[in-house]
Amino acid sequence: MKGKLEPSERQKLIEEGKNLKEGLLTLEEDLLKLTDELQQEAQCIPNMTHPDVPIGDEDSSTIRKKVGSPHDFSFPIKDHLQLGKELNLFDFDAAAKVSGSKFYYLKNEAVMLEMALTNWTVFEVIKRGFTPLTTPEIVRSSVVEKCGFQPRGENTQVYSIEGSDHCLIGTAEIPVGGIHMDSILANSQLPLKYVASSHCFRTEAGAAGTATRGLYRVHQFSKVEMFVLCQPEESDSYHEELIRIEEELFTSLGLHFKILDMATADLGAPAYRKFDVEAWMPGLGRYGEISSASNCTDYQSRRLGIRYRPSEPPSSTPKKGKGNIPTQFVHTLNATACAIPRMIVCILENYQQEDGSIVIPKPLRPFMGGLERITPKSQ
Amino acid sequence: MRRGCCFGGTTLHTLKLATLPSLSPSSRFVLNPITPVFRSPRAPLRFSPIGRALSSAPAVQPAAPSSSKVATKTISDDQLAKPQWNASIDFKWIRDNKDAVATNIKNRNSNADLELVLELYTKMLEIQKEVERLRGERNVVANKMKGKLEPSERQKLIEEGKNLKEGLLTLEEDLLKLTDELQQEAQCIPNMTHPDVPIGDEDSSTIRKKVGSPHDFSFPIKDHLQLGKELNLFDFDAAAKVSGSKFYYLKNEAVMLEMALTNWTVFEVIKRGFTPLTTPEIVRSSVVEKCGFQPRGENTQVYSIEGSDHCLIGTAEIPVGGIHMDSILANSQLPLKYVASSHCFRTEAGAAGTATRGLYRVHQFSKVEMFVLCQPEESDSYHEELIRIEEELFTSLGLHFKILDMATADLGAPAYRKFDVEAWMPGLGRYGEISSASNCTDYQSRRLGIRYRPSEPPSSTPKKGKGNIPTQFVHTLNATACAIPRMIVCILENYQQEDGSIVIPKPLRPFMGGLERITPKSQ
């Protein structure tokens, strides 16, 4: 239409242009709707799975390693609830009045145990090259979703804040994952290794049954979490590193535990591979999960928009500009360094003595003012 | 450049964890055990003063500067939901002391309506009297009906009984409505005030004590935000993306500083005979109200959980106050002294202006709080003890600060008396509140229903039963032992060195693996 035209020709073109424009608008609307629907459906597709992961449900999970063995007690043992009651370490009743079930106060030595576990764990992981963090515990719900959780689902694990688009975190994985949202990292920045101490809040909707007594399943707890961002080709090896760190930590505390390679039906959408640690809880009479280490490959990073620019291969021409190497998505991993309530269950139940006292694992003593044992008040 | 922690001479990887100072044997957890609470049938509600005068949300965390003083009563009576719990208010006492109560209300800039309260109370008494009279008559009729009667007499009595019943029903409904209205109005009445408290607004607060003096710097100083940036200690930008403004990540040595401050403070207070606690941070909103806060007010400081009747705590004072809710404690259990470490969440709605930069005003922070329940005659002296402990803690950390006796308009409804501590923050160029110690006398306990049974005087006859001594309300007190972000501001700004490093106060070093200074990464 830019050139010289006869009026009738011009008119024809104008009509044609108008039709094209309308046609386009309709199509673009359709495209938008379709894209949204595609996103919605496609986001349901879980991450791919590591070839070594056993296929099946929970019973198909395999044991990678066992450390230690159940301690043989020469006297009748108690569970952590009874021990806690006798040693005046928790109060579930007052918490039920003030907040509801599955809430608790820690008291006396249990407070120091929580502080010791947190501090010792953070220090140990710092020594292994991780950057310590504390994080917001109120976050935008979009960040929760991008990490692979569902804040609005039925039976959601996530608490929402009234009158806002915010939620409480169920794990520090979420706010740490969010740090580098929508960023392009330099190759030299990777790997980024964080250790975050936070409180975690979970509705535990849908969780019922016997495994909910006492500290085993609660709405609020402290946790020390490890989080790694790395190049894709390195994630398998960082997964190994994370589970090794966990193994070292739990061994130092003298726990008996097994490391499981979780089967496909038990993975959860973001995880490419997941190792769970289950520790022996004599009072419970079985193994209980104390930790989980997941390799989420690029599942979270594609949602959080975390990319990096791989470095140039040595053979490239010096003239190549920075923008020529396409960015790639990082891989993310997360692993529990210490989930405090379950660790307290383990320590109380495994280290109980016949006289009702609890021996404190050696590594924690310097963090408890040198305290070696929790003794009943009458002594 | 590889990111990581570099702790001066002691690198991360060779962190030698110094043994923490051992607690003295006397404090080795031979703490006052929390013996099972003596539960007895609830004594009939005797009306004792409780004002839910939640006019100004008590500023436990450092209050906003005067420009953003919290407005008094922001909810109209109509909007206030009917109280779902009753406060044990002593209306008779209010009536008998109405001049003092009126003066107090005026001094505190409260808009409680005393006249209305007294009016409603008088009316209520009248109706109660009438109700009792009618009940009496109804009993007479009922008794008469037991005997032999002529049918016509019986019929008359039946009618009379019916009328009385209806009349009673109406009166009892009125009484209920009146009682609710009376509660609503009376709960607005603030606590009475200690006679030594200066009358007036913030400027009338007096200085009880000054400790230290502002350090003279021989070089241009930086504020905590700049120091934090240069030393890679915080991230506000990432937190703004993930959560919003006034949120933050602590990083590297700041994390260890938070852990050290928390642990050291808890240990120090344990040594002084307090029982350590961690608490729920999600609580029922009724508990929040009973402590004197307003979860549902406009400009509320309180976050609520969607789809529930729960809120996030703004201070551990709330869940600790709730522990002994609706209980009768034995005299021997008192005093109960708790030190609670928790996270705190505050909307900071209505807080604006310059004093909101960085860590000074945030939505989420860690705090160590002291809470005491005691006999009424002891609360003044425990108030002194709490402020003394605070003074010792802050002096140990080498801070320069002043202790203020807060004036009436700045008290907040629950506090009978409040001491604030303001520390010198050189980067801010002024004093900033780091702590608050309040004596709430029986304001909270009358709402939370925390009573105790005084012991029998020695002269009483041994035959006297346990139930003869009437219960009384305990007094409660609360005081900030350590509000972590403001403490971090103080330490960074006061201990900064010319080379950009920060010296760590000596008491905290054993809790930081012996670290003596936070140094810039290039060194």
TrEMBL record, chain A:
UniProt entry keywords in alphabetical sequence: Aminoacyl-tRNA synthetase, ATP-binding, Ligase, Nucleotide-binding, Protein biosynthesis
One CC-aspect GO term: cytoplasm
Domain Aminoacyl-transfer RNA synthetases class-II family profile, residue spans: 127-361
Binding site for ATP: 202-204, 218-221, 289-292
GO annotation terms (biological process): seryl-tRNA aminoacylation
Binding site for L-serine: 171, 202, 225, 334
CDD domains: SerRS_core (cd00770)
EC number: 6.1.1.11
InterPro entries assigned: aa-tRNA-synt_IIb (IPR002314), aa-tRNA-synth_II (IPR006195), aa-tRNA-synth_II/BPL/LPL (IPR045864), Ser-tRNA-ligase_type_1 (IPR002317), SerRS_core (IPR033729), tRNA-bd_arm (IPR010978)
Domain of life: Eukaryota
Aminoacyl-tRNA synthetase in keyword set: yes
Molecular function as annotated in GO: ATP binding; serine-tRNA ligase activity
Cross-referenced Pfam families: tRNA-synt_2b
TM region(s), chain numbering: none
Feature type site, description Important for serine binding: 336
Keyword Glycoprotein: no
Name of the top EC class for this enzyme: ligase
NCBIfam families documented for this protein: serS
Name this polypeptide is given: serine--tRNA ligase
TrEMBL record, chain B:
GO MF, one annotated term: ATP binding
GO cellular component, one term: cytoplasm
Binding residue positions for ATP: 346-348, 362-365, 433-436
GO biological process: seryl-tRNA aminoacylation
Pfam families reported in the protein's UniProt record: Seryl_tRNA_N, tRNA-synt_2b
NCBIfam families hit by this protein: serS
Name of protein: serine--tRNA ligase
Organism: Rhodamnia argentea
Lineage: Eukaryota, Viridiplantae, Streptophyta, Embryophyta, Tracheophyta
